[in-house]
């Protein structure tokens, strides 16, 4: 009888991380997405990033909304917490979860439909609040689950599988996030794990909202010759604008400083994002310069990838709200909710 | 790196480690699948085609396939291939209708075979269906050669041996018992069209140390002694027995001694255990029977009292780390009633006159071509232990097949060097969406352990077979351990869109898409380092989108087919590889790929 579950067999040289776990311990269920879906490659990158960072699975919370992309949290770290929300409402759930337990690592996985159409408002406010989380947009330009209609990220002129061109202007999540004051903005490609894995690791370490827009070709509805988000098109037009290394806290930085204006950003946990190369005159810490640079490249058809903007100085949601250092979930219920007598006393003060 | 040429049958053949390691290239995965389906007769026939003696080899084979088995590199224990072979042989049904048809008319060619062992019998098996008249000369009054004389009946029951030898004799072989060939010259004078010598390596090595001649009555040459036991000339031995040497013959000698009256039996080895020649399982079986295996003892002299052997003196040795140099610690005496020498065996050709045109090399072995098995005298061929010294039954079978091709060519007036080449067929196993024709999941079951007859009972008679064979539950579990390495991952680079799906899903990280380079350097930068240089690294042609290459390290691929399952463009496919092995009578010039779908 044929089986499509992943064999338990492993490579004899399989390595273990600091927790003694192998990368297989960070896998989830078998994907039921179409074979060749870019989302599965992103899943593999997320799996690798968490394993390499040696984060205990039970310290991770994975959240999603509705769509092909939103199925993917099932396919990584099956030992993590998970929440599959209503369509477009994942940012609100993540905000609530982060408010209640600031100790977990939050990763939200969304798509161009879930985040740029029905959930656009939710996304904007999560950015505003600077909720500490990794926010992945698996961006393929189409509604895959409903047979390939254009999404809000489809480029003007990009053709559907049946040949009609898209006429409406796209929403670019990267430029949107910059205008909303996002503190970590990156773009990558599902077919480039070499770039994506370090960006994911930096996003986990970042104290604040980390948006990663990942071009993730829809192999069934948007991988044809007229598409601007196919594997071939992305490979042809992708430019690694910045190249970064993520260096965990205790490691010494030995990266080569290139003539392309290398710079480093130290994160709050002591880890360092090292920009090996950035374009001439580009400063990934200067929002205005990054915006100008992106604007300049908007219409050329180039897909700029890399960690494009990083700001470690802005306060995150907990700092803004001045909440307790101790996660609310760890504070006894009686302290959190002192009862009706205490409420009456409080109200009395205002009478 | 050079792009891998998968149209050469050797590439996929090598991936099937067991079949590659087997000298006769038995199609192991195919017959294991047939056993799994309960098709024992068909499994037996698949076996018989290449190894001719499945029931015999299912008990006695040296199993070159098992150390090679890919499963061993995954969980440490290879599939119990040999035991499964026995299951097929024990449970098979009627096979006479499935055997090669023997033509009524002779083709007019007469072949003489010398020695009715596995090599000669294989030649007869291959040539009779082509109409050759085959005359087989045997010095004993029973056929089988070493399989009868040197393998004790508690390992290979006489009936099992008789059955498989008779299948060949019943093809119409003119066998002449009690007919040792004492002169090749007179045999050649009988004008056979070709002569094949499968006379084995019949001379056991002696140990010329003091006391050897004086104590001769109680010192036996291992293979001669086993032969005397097999033919009923010897039925007892002293209580205290020393076996000198620690190869498989030594194991047969000590266990036979145990059954003929020996109670205190020691196998004496010069070197540490890691350097023993005996197969590990034969050592285990001997130790289970209470045999003492003593290491680091070098024989010094036989000790006699009143003209009778009382024991032996040994030097106790201390070896360096590689067991190359030794130092004598002291000398000790071990009492013994009998000593059996099992320190190797030599060839002997007193019956070949040296002026016939057959060249002999400096070890007094005939010069034999390694491919054609022809000697320097046209029309005279050698095979089995007689060709290149002592090996195992399965090698004799392989030699027999190759020699039969040469004899056929020789008799048809073709050069023996023009040989039919192996071919292959590749057939997709995809049956539909998520449907494969084979059992592609990985069963983590442990290797099944062979059950043995009770220790108390097995010594009652010499011919009680010790191994009971696998029971149905064990068989069912063991067949599922096979990885179906013959169901190959076949890659069509033109279709690849480099989506990484196969790389992401592979449970054993054997796939990588990366830039080309020198093989050694590429091996170091794969998804998992390819550290086993004996296993091939597949390299595709440049991929359409980026010009990078698809690499596959064959080392620990479990053939689960998930790469093909997750491939959106069917660039990967699982195709069953069937090696079409040439035998005598196969056509010489045909394309190497029979089918490619």
The CATH superfamily title of the domain at 100-202 and 347-411 in chain B:
FAD/NAD(P)-binding domain
Which strand-content bin applies to the residues of chain B?
15-25%
State the strand order across the main sheet of chain B.
3-2-1-4-15
In terms of quaternary structure, the protein is heterodimer
The main sheet of chain A comes to: 8 strands, mixed
Write down the CATH class of chain A: Alpha Beta
Indicate the structural class of chain B.
alpha/beta
Largest beta-sheet details of chain B: 5 strands, parallel
Q: Which outline of chain B best applies?
A: globular
CATH superfamily of chain A: Thiamin diphosphate (ThDP)-binding fold, Pyr/PP domains
Please identify, by name, the CATH architecture of the domain at 100-202 and 347-411 in chain B.
Answer: 3-Layer(bba) Sandwich
Distance between the termini of chain B: 26 Å
What is the name of the CATH architecture of chain A?
3-Layer(aba) Sandwich
In helices, the fraction of residues of chain A equals: 25-40%
Compute the number of strand runs of chain B: 24
Q: Class of the domain at 100-202 and 347-411 in chain B in CATH?
A: Alpha Beta
Low-pLDDT sequence parts of chain B: none
Secondary structural class of chain A: alpha/beta
Compute the gyration radius of chain A: what is it? 21 Å
The average pLDDT of chain B is 95
